[in-house]
């Protein structure tokens, strides 16, 4: 029996996911579906699968899976697209909504142009700096400017969780970095019990940084919203930038602000629909 499922492919700065409206659709094994549908040759092609579910505690729930079928706690680019879907596809008429995630409830504010969502500002919550909660194996209360040896080279990293673990490493040359070689060595390093997302960062000025990211479970992606947030926080903690930072990623720019009084990180960026389709099993 063939089963048909409607889906929408969306992207935030080239970080692309397949979105399914589970107010209407029912998926029995999302982890296995994520692997098949994410395949760029035999599937739709994406960094993963995101289900938009009803929620008892928020306007909707975001249930996300990486391309390898592993469950992800949170995705900054993904959640902006969830917000756009909710508004553009008529699941809400509000211009600010709440979204339940494994990293807690996130709050979204929409910037509407011609009746559709063009940009989304996300309250990404408070950065987690305690090593055991990130988690990273490190002494002391914070892992800021901490030495780590990878493949015989010592790097300085700052570790932060935005609901998922990040290691921010400063490099002189982001563009020519051998990320395919070094990314997996950070990801699977023994100091990260749950693996890690690694951001390789160059500070351009007090308000601008450039970044490439190696995401656990997905490899290099064009953009990572939680990674951009973690990067901004790391830059501020290290005294390298002001509290508002433009993070330049391969897929475009994100505006990040760490409001230290409220201890909240806000991310503003675009969300776009690529196409709608029907998946047949």
From TrEMBL:
Keyword Cytoplasm attributed: yes
Q: Which GO terms describe its molecular function?
A: diaminopimelate epimerase activity
Q: What keywords is this UniProt entry annotated with?
A: Amino-acid biosynthesis, Cytoplasm, Isomerase, Lysine biosynthesis
Look up the record and name the pathway of this protein. Amino-acid biosynthesis; L-lysine biosynthesis via DAP pathway; DL-2,6-diaminopimelate from LL-2,6-diaminopimelate: step 1/1
Q: Which residues bind substrate?
A: 15, 66, 76-77, 164, 197, 215-216, 225-226
Q: Which reaction does it catalyse?
A: (2S,6S)-2,6-diaminopimelate = meso-2,6-diaminopimelate
Q: Which domain of life is it from?
A: Bacteria
Instruction: Please state where this protein is localized.
Output: Cytoplasm
Major subcellular site: cytoplasm
Q: Which Pfam families match?
A: DAP_epimerase
**Stated role:** Catalyzes the stereoinversion of LL-2,6-diaminopimelate (L,L-DAP) to meso-diaminopimelate (meso-DAP), a precursor of L-lysine and an essential component of the bacterial peptidoglycan.
- Name of the featured protein: Diaminopimelate epimerase
